[in-house]
Design goal:
Elements: E1 30-36, E2 45-52, H1 58-67, E3 71-72
Parallel strand pairs: 1-3
Antiparallel strand pairs: 1-2
Length: 76
Amino acid sequence: MDMIPKELYPELPVVHITAIEKNKVVTLGFYECPVYITTARGGTYVFTANLKMESEEADAELYWILAGVGLFMQPE
C-alpha cells in the first residue's frame, strides 16, 4: 500500500524469510523488490525479495516499479 503522507522513513515489520526452490517460485501477485544495504543503491544491491501485492494485476506491479520502490537494510 502507499505511504502515509509526511512519513519519510516507514519501517517494514519483521519479515519471516524462507527459501524456495527456483522452479517452485510463484511470481503472480508478487512484486520483485530489490533489497540494498544503504540508500546509495547501485553497488549495495544484495538480493530480490518477492513481496505480496494486494492485487494480482500486472498494472499493480508496474506501479511499484515506476515508483522506484526498494528495501534498505541499514537505517539512515
